[in-house]
Amino acid sequence: MATDDLGTVVVTGASTGIGAACALYLSERGFQVFAGVRKPSDAQAVTARGRPNLEPLILDVTQPETITAAVQAVQASLGSKGLAGLVNNAGISYDEPLECVPIASLRHQFEVNAIGPVAVTQAFLPMLRSARGRVVTVGSINGLIASPMSGPYSMSKFAIEAFSDGLRRELAPWGIHVALIEPGAIKTAIWDKATVNDWSAKATPAQLDLYGEAYRQFRKLIADSAQKAVPCDQVSQAILHALTATKPRTRYLVGKDARLLARLAALLPDRVLDGVLRKAMS
Ligand SMILES: NC(=O)c1ccc[n+]([C@@H]2O[C@H](COP(=O)([O-])OP(=O)(O)OC[C@H]3O[C@@H](n4cnc5c(N)ncnc54)[C@H](OP(=O)(O)O)[C@@H]3O)[C@@H](O)[C@H]2O)c1
After folding, report:
1. What does the pLDDT average to over 201-221?
2. What is the Cα–Cα distance from 86 to 241, expressed in whole angstroms?
């Protein structure tokens, strides 16, 4: 295990899942890691790991005051050293038919998954610029294929594709590399949350008449994907490459499912792809 000082990184959404695994993984490979969490109990859990180079950082990506406080805390710790990396990982998912999703939920979806990473990146960019650090954002294969019933989530992940491409092109003059991670199904709490947040339990009878069956098929597909999901370490490895490689990639598809779906999205005409997705959900 490497113990070099690779510099300091901030990882958002590090209480569970990919963020928690990635924060630990990067700390084991020689980064000083600030693990972004929202709750004091999650901050205590990070501290309880007993790793001097893994520290909690209170950070809610939708709350400007916590972003400002987080930047000040990292700045105080780094002095003039600058930040080697920012991993925009925090994310949530609303899986509901687009005809039915409450607009407030859609806004929240975008606040966390799309606006949050922009706000956090803006806030840390001065520190990233001074170290020629890197920005790595966790998107999703749903940023390349919008599947029915997860329209809100897919919309936010398509937005993050544009964010990462646009930012990479804008920051190239300063040699700041920007990468996007596009995972398929990864074993994390997000699947349990999807099971708990059952849209059909709150849908009206009229909505269920329209979408009940499609949603039931979607839930079967989700349960199946959760079974086949791969461990978080595959994402951590891609993030490490994006943060440290001499020639980092602009995108990292993680998992066989993501690679297959990305190929289908690139090759198939829309109507054919619609049919493939319809078949997968029947
Ligand atoms: N798992 C997959 O199959 C998969 C596939 C493709 C992409 N992804 C992406 O990977 C990322 C991590 O997801 P995961 O699967 O690891 O899910 P997860 O275990 O549910 O973790 C989500 C993390 O985001 C945090 N979070 C939620 N709202 C936040 C906010 N407003 N501010 C800051 N943090 C917030 C959560 O913190 P709390 O505990 O405080 O809520 C948690 O730490 C997401 O961007 C997700 O879209 C996951």
Report:
1. 96
2. 13
